[in-house]
């Protein structure tokens, strides 16, 4: 038995390869480093979903139209849904969509995740949701639906890079959940709802909000080392560090740090939160080496996700929803791959409870 299924191979996939020793992420034969330089999120969706589902040839246009259709769902949604915490509101809104296993369901889910996230943020600020602009790219339209303003090209490019960076990542907890559900023959909506539930937890996609809480508590670079010593001394985990697979730095952290640097240079030139984040990162890595000498704990994707999404104007309570806007592509591709090539996933458990007293 392997607690947490560590090192257990539970699926064959052509979708992504997480090389935890060399710190490399490959998506269908392309390295993440190459993808973030040349591909939009829509291109990565095509790459992931090719051969998995009969996608329309003009995917950006079809996705734009799907966003328009998803907005109708927002207009008819009950008010009380928007009072829920954003990730729960997203789950509730997605649950109003029909289930299915076809390209239309896939587009509805990808579009709906983006449109609902923006609408939830607007409603929570007491503002009216803004209808999508189908002519914009997916990332630019998310920002526009959130703010009402067509974003600067570099802000749209930064969010696009984020969506590409998190689109797929092997058999992480939420993707595994999606595959388990798909293996029963349930549809893509069911797989997505389960995956979103798994993503929400702080050990997975719920970490970036607490990363910002940590930066707020530290306040200035000079406080970093002392604060981190105290936290580790109390036995706490540092959010944004450590990973089940990576034994070196998570390549996605550098992809996002690059996006952030470009954005910050244009915006105000003072680096924003970046100097504090870099001081905290250095202090955390040094302290983790001392506290956990037998475990390599490096920066993971969530650390720079937090700072990038904050810089783009997303409130921290919505970070998990924005993560879902990107990872939905991976969930759907894996769910389809499981349906096409896999079997029912049904592992065994070891019973350690009381035995029936046979003598009695
Ligand atoms: N801070 C302090 N100690 C840590 C951290 C951390 N961030 N991560 C792991 N450790 C320690 C554990 O306490 C444990 O120590 P012990 O052996 O003395 O008990 C040891 O390292 C191994 O930890 P596990 O929980 O067994 O490692 P696992 O592979 O299960 O955990 C995880 C991976 C959940 C990501 C973990 O590193 C963690 O909790 N990180 C903080 C939360 C976080 O950043 N989550 C986002 C992950 S990225 C993503 O999902 C998109």
Give the helix/strand layout.
Elements: E1 16-19, E2 24-27, E3 30-31, H1 32-38, H2 41-49, H3 59-75, H4 86-94, H5 103-124, H6 138-147, H7 153-166, H8 173-183, H9 188-199, H10 208-218, H11 224-233, H12 251-267, H13 274-291, H14 301-311, H15 319-341
Helix pairs in contact: 2-15, 3-5, 4-5, 5-6, 5-15, 6-7, 7-12, 7-14, 7-15, 8-9, 8-15, 9-15, 10-14, 11-13, 12-14
The Cα radius of gyration reads 21 Å
Output the structural class: mainly alpha
Bound small molecules, by name, code or SMILES, are: acetyl coenzyme *A
Regions with pLDDT < 50 over 5+ consecutive residues? none
Count of discrete alpha- or pi-helical segments spanning 4 or more residues: 15
Amount of beta strand:
under 5%
Number of strands: 3
> How far is it from the N-terminal to the C-terminal residue, by CA?
31 Å
Average predicted local confidence, pLDDT: 94
Strand order of the largest sheet: 1-2-3
Q: What's the SSE pattern?
A: EEEHHHHHHHHHHHHHHH
Gross geometry: globular
Largest sheet descriptor: 3 strands, antiparallel
Percent helix: 55-70%
